[in-house]
Amino acid sequence: MPHVIKMKRVTKTYRMGDMSVQALRGIDLEVERGEFLAIMGPSGSGKSTLMNLLGCLDKPTSGEYFLDDVNVSGLSKNEYAGIRNEKIGFVFQTYNLLPRTSALENVELPLFYDRTGRIKNPKQAAVEALARVGLGDRLHHEPSQLSGGEQQRVAIARALVNQPAIVLADEPTGNLDTRVSIDVMSVFQELNQEGITVVLVTHEPDIAVYTNRIVKIRDGIIRQSTAVLKPGNAKKDLEAYRDPVEDELEKAGQ
User: Fold this and answer.
1) 214 touches 38 (CB < 8 A)
2) 179 φ, ψ (degrees, to nearest 5)
3) What is the pLDDT of residues 88-131, one digit of tens each?
4) In terms of residue numbers, what domain contains 224?
5) Could you give phi then psi for residue 14, rounded to 5 degrees?
């Protein structure tokens, strides 16, 4: 199966005056098209730097990065912006939705910057993306009228609307409770089963088990890459989930 991501000996060094900090020290990473990958590591491990490079938000100091068969390592800032808009969908911990703006308008927003003309009907594409994440009946709701889980679903729809080669999710369940986190992971699993490539950064092992492979990074080096032989089924786990607080109240007869 072809690789949508291929990094070869990638390094990243930050300069601070006379000092330099080597955040990544020779990363080799391959992600197959249609894979669901989790990147894990402690604070300061380099996982955020790696995510920035994967998302073309920053450039490597050395090495090569091929995204969807294009070597993006030496592109200009404008070319990087084009790559981000055409090939990458972003999902963040804080949703980053515009307030007082409908779900439909939030999802449609990235298409205003699309100069390729790939998406012929932006509004219809946004409607379809929201329906894809189960929000076809929330098109005209503003973020304040949506739950945290629904807001994250809007953010996922926004990431999908430009038909990206990959979706990068940076701690997408970090602000959500357990039940809603499982619900969001069920959305990612469904999208991945449809063929979407998803790369997720998380520090939560119980979230990483819903992916197909876990890459662990420490001190700027990939230390381990392990296939998840039997990924969790988020949809089934959601159906079986019981809130421990509700259980305690039930036992107490409240």
Assistant:
1) yes
2) -65, -45
3) 999 999 999 999 999 999 999 998 877 777 788 999 999 999 99
4) 3-251
5) -105, 135
The two three-digit tokens of residue 221, written as one number: 């080096």
Cα(68)–Cα(33) distance, integer angstroms: 9
Residue of 69, 70, 49 lying closest to 61 (CA atoms): 49
- Report how far apart, in Å, the C-alpha atoms of 210 and of each of 33, 42, 61 are: 17, 19, 33
What is the layout of strands, in order, in the sheet containing 19-32?
19-32, 3-16, 62-67, 70-71
Strand partners, 64: 8
Q: Backbone phi, then psi, for 49, in 5-degree steps? A: -60, -45
CATH number, domain containing residue 195 = 3.40.50.300
DSSP the chain: --EEEEEEEEEEEEEETTEEEEEEEEEEEEEETT-EEEEE--TTSSHHHHHHHHTTSS--SEEEEEETTEE-TT--HHHHHHHHHHHEEEEETT--PPTTS-HHHHHHGGGGG--S---S-HHHHHHHHHHHTT-TT-TT--GGGS-HHHHHHHHHHHHHTT--SEEEEESTTTTS-HHHHHHHHHHHHHHHHTT-EEEEE-S-HHHHTTSSEEEEEETTEEEEEEE-SS---HHHHHHH---HHHHHHHHTT-
**Given the structure tokens 């036992």, which residue do they identify?**
251
The total number of structural domains in the chain stands at 1
Give pLDDT tens digits for 139-165.
Answer: 999 999 999 999 999 999 999 999 999
Sequence length of the chain is: 254
